[in-house]
């Protein structure tokens, strides 16, 4: 209130007083701009608030379910008879999300329209939808409604995949499609909940299709066709925290569907609307914050359910976890419901096992039990400090930082007795940008002789989160724990003073 008042006075004085008295007012302005908390300057680009919340979701499910589930296809042509969508029971998003939650996932995204254009809700934009089917359970289906309700009950985040490409629509490729079909469908979906965390807009766009019976090939200009700025505005007005993935330009594809991200990976990127460029690595001096999401499957076949498919082993899924969430990306793991509209028992089982594995391996954090010291600590502000202990307090708004003169520094963790150690989790305070370029992890029994850990794993970037398996293997990370009384994390290079928010040791 007081500062506000001062500023008003300064502004008024500017027009009425002579230059000398204007000069006299200036220090007041400077005081407003000063940095009493001695907060480090951000390294741009920095994430938008909605991107930060999105990043914290970390691990979430993908549900590919729809017409393809019944036609045994991955990409429907768009000419499928609506009656072919014939669930043998009412689709049960509550069952899907309960299983996802058991694996430690924090949310999920449901496909509600794939490239074949078949809509899993009673949209006003087309008759190519579940409620047109003669199957009783199909007519009861409303995936966005039931999915959002279930997520809210389970305290999970939720969002929808709606394919921009529509092989059914006669309008696809014309302006009418974007205005009267696609944007309206997105607006309809936005109404199923204002707290959606992500909308998924796939990059497969244009080609052949049914197109209302006209057939042929329709190509579009991906940079301009979907009127993305308008799309973002429309969705954000209703769902302010909803990150628009892919075509939407707020989060990028990681560049593969195998469940890994680069060991060196920057959230900054250069291109907003063609996010697949450099997906796996990002760009060190990119101008735009465009974090990576890794989409992968729990099954050994396609995105949709197929007879005879099997689920990957827990160890393989844990490897994916380390190579995506542990490498500054989020992981969206696909769990395909079958023709009953529920997840098969084998998938449910595996998710339970994975949850148990995560609790065993990454559940007992030893860092808060250690004494933490730093090579250098940034001078404290009036109400703010940058102490080493901030990395173990579990708070998102505190962090360890060095003074601006240093782009390096180390944190040392000391236990009373030797510990069996396997994983180190590091997190930067990315509100101030992604900064760290390289680091080293070492352990010691006596505090004098140090051994570098992590084998051949590249200890370069950190970003939102990095998990280093100390034995150097993401494939077989749980074997051969390191015995140590001391563990030291040294930031060897950073774009500016490092700002480390969190360290966990398991
Ligand atoms: C791809 C699509 O073409 C696939 O069918 C699937 O939906 C996957 C997640 O994205 O690009």
Provide the β-strand percentage band: 15-25%
End-to-end CA span: 47 Å
The unreliable regions are 1-20
Global geometry: globular
Percent helix = 10-25%
Structure at a glance:
This protein is an alpha/beta fold and 506 residues long.
Describe this structure in words.
The protein is of the alpha/beta class. 25% of the residues lie in helices and 21% in strands. It has eleven helices and 21 strands. The protein has helices spanning 2-16, 19-33, 49-55, 67-71, 93-102, 136-140, 143-154, 175-190, 228-238, 314-324, 345-362; strands at residues 59-63, 107-113, 157-162, 198-201, 207-208, 217-218, 243-246, 252-253, 268-269, 288-289, 292-297, 329-334, 371-374, 400-401, 409-421, 423-428, 436-444, 451-452, 466-469, 482-494, 499-505. Strands 7-4-3-2-1-12-11-8 form an eight-stranded parallel β-sheet, sandwiched between helices. Helix 10 (314-324) links the parallel strand 11 and strand 12 (329-334). Helix 5 packs parallel to helix 11 and helix 8 (175-190) runs parallel beside helix 9. Mean pLDDT is 93; it is low at 1-20. It binds beta-L-fucopyranose. Beta-L-fucopyranose is lined by residues 74-75, 202-204, 295, 303.
Please write out the topology.
Elements: H1 2-16, H2 19-33, H3 49-55, E1 59-63, H4 67-71, H5 93-102, E2 107-113, H6 136-140, H7 143-154, E3 157-162, H8 175-190, E4 198-201, E5 207-208, E6 217-218, H9 228-238, E7 243-246, E8 252-253, E9 268-269, E10 288-289, E11 292-297, H10 314-324, E12 329-334, H11 345-362, E13 371-374, E14 400-401, E15 409-421, E16 423-428, E17 436-444, E18 451-452, E19 466-469, E20 482-494, E21 499-505
Parallel strand pairs: 1-2, 1-12, 2-3, 3-4, 4-7, 8-11, 11-12
Antiparallel strand pairs: 5-6, 9-10, 13-15, 14-21, 15-20, 16-19, 16-21, 17-18, 17-20
Helix pairs in contact: 1-2, 5-7, 5-11, 8-9, 10-11
């Amino acid at each position: 209130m007081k500062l506000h008042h001062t500023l008003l006075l300064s502004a008024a004085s500017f027009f009425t007083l002579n230059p000398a008295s204007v000069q006299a007012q200036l220090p007041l302005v400077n005081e407003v701009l000063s940095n009493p908390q001695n907060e480090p300057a951000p390294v741009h680009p920095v994430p938008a608030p909605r991107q930060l919340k999105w990043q914290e979701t970390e691990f979430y499910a993908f549900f590919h379910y729809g017409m393809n589930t019944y036609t045994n296809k991955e990409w429907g042509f768009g000419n499928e008879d609506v009656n072919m969508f014939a669930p043998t029971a009412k689709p049960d998003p509550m069952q899907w999300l309960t299983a996802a939650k058991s694996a430690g996932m924090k949310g999920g995204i449901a496909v509600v329209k794939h490239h074949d254009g078949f809509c899993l809700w009673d949209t006003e934009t087309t008759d190519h939808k579940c409620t047109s089917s003669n199957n009783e359970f199909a007519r009861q289906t409303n995936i966005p409604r039931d999915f959002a309700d279930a997520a809210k009950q389970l305290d999970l985040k939720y969002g929808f995949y709606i394919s921009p490409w529509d092989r059914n629509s006669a309008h696809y490729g014309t302006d009418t499609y974007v205005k009267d079909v696609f944007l309206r469908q997105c607006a309809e979906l936005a109404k199923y909940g204002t707290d959606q965390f992500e909308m998924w807009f796939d990059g497969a766009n244009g080609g052949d299709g049914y197109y209302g019976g006209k057939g042929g090939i329709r190509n579009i200009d991906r940079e301009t066709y979907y009127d993305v700025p308008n799309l973002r505005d429309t969705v954000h007005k209703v769902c302010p925290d909803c990150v628009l993935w892919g075509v939407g330009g707020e989060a990028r594809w990681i560049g593969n569907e195998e469940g890994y991200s680069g060991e060196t990976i920057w959230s900054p990127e250069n291109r907003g609307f063609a996010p697949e460029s450099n997906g796996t690595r990002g760009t060190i001096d990119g101008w735009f914050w465009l974090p990576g999401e890794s989409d992968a499957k729990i099954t050994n076949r396609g995105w949709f359910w197929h007879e005879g498919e099997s689920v990957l082993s827990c160890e393989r899924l844990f490897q994916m976890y380390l190579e995506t969430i542990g490498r500054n990306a989020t992981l969206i793991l696909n769990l395909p419901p079958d023709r009953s509209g529920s997840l098969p028992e084998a998938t449910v089982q595996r998710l339970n096992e994975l949850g148990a594995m995560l609790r065993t391996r990454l559940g007992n954090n030893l860092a808060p039990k250690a004494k933490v010291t730093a090579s250098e600590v940034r001078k404290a502000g009036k109400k703010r400090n940058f102490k080493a202990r901030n990395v173990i307090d579990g708070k998102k708004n505190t962090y360890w930082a060095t003074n601006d003169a240093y782009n390096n520094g180390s944190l040392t963790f000391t236990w009373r007795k030797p510990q069996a150690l396997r994983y180190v989790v590091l997190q930067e305070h990315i509100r101030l940008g992604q900064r760290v370029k390289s680091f080293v992890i070492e352990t010691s029994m006596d505090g004098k002789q140090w051994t570098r850990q992590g084998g051949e794993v590249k200890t370069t970037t950190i970003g939102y989160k990095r998990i280093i398996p100390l034995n150097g293997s993401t494939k077989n990370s749980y074997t051969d724990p390191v015995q140590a009384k001391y563990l030291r994390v040294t930031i060897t290079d950073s774009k500016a003073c490092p700002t480390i928010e969190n360290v966990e040791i398991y």
